[in-house]
Amino acid sequence: MIKVGDTLPATTLMEFSEVEGNGCSIGPNPVDVAKATAGKTIALFALPGAFTPTCSAKHVPGYVEKFADLKAAGVDEVWCLSVNDAFVMGAWARDQKTDGKVRMLADGSADFARAVGLTLDLTGKGMGVRSARYSMLVKDGKVVTLNVEGPGKFEVSDAGTLLAQARG
């Protein structure tokens, strides 16, 4: 499992863009993790699935709500990762009204989740291999804080915890 001090894995996530601009075409666009984190402070949180109860009712809304506070604490971007495809993440972004606040990034084949050692096997529930629920503060590609939830828990990966860590 990834730990504080480690560099994020050289993987590519996918992001759906509603509007063309800033060199992004409409549709799924690759996000090179190393390039996208270089020189930035990222509040990254990951969760088992888009449109799932805890993720939709608590996890994402907390980061949307605390976005301005996270920015004030020195966070450049807020990322939400899930093992879903970019189209699902785009639809969920619309539903959660994350535009301009939280980047909804798809880890469609769980490559990032596997590389950081934070997978969750929900095959028995018909959901396949997913991401565990966690959050991390990342500075220039390196993990500064890491908060991994226990199975079925939502206690340490919330926006309030990561905000307190960002304020340091």
Automatic annotation (TrEMBL):
GO annotation (BP), single: cell redox homeostasis
GO CC annotations on file: cytoplasm
Alphabetical list of SUPFAM superfamilies matching this protein: Thioredoxin-like
Function in brief: Thiol-specific peroxidase that catalyzes the reduction of hydrogen peroxide and organic hydroperoxides to water and alcohols, respectively. Plays a role in cell protection against oxidative stress by detoxifying peroxides.
EC number(s) stated in the UniProt entry for this protein: 1.11.1.27
Name of the molecule in the record: Glutathione-dependent peroxiredoxin
Source organism (scientific name): Variovorax terrae
Alphabetical keyword list: Antioxidant, Oxidoreductase, Peroxidase, Redox-active center
Molecular function in Gene Ontology: thioredoxin peroxidase activity
Pfam families: Redoxin (PF08534)
Residue intervals of the Thioredoxin domain: 2-168
Residues of the active site: 55 (cysteine sulfenic acid (-soh) intermediate)
First-tier enzyme category under EC: oxidoreductase
Catalysed conversion reaction: a hydroperoxide + 2 glutathione = an alcohol + glutathione disulfide + H2O
Family: Belongs to the peroxiredoxin family. Prx5 subfamily.
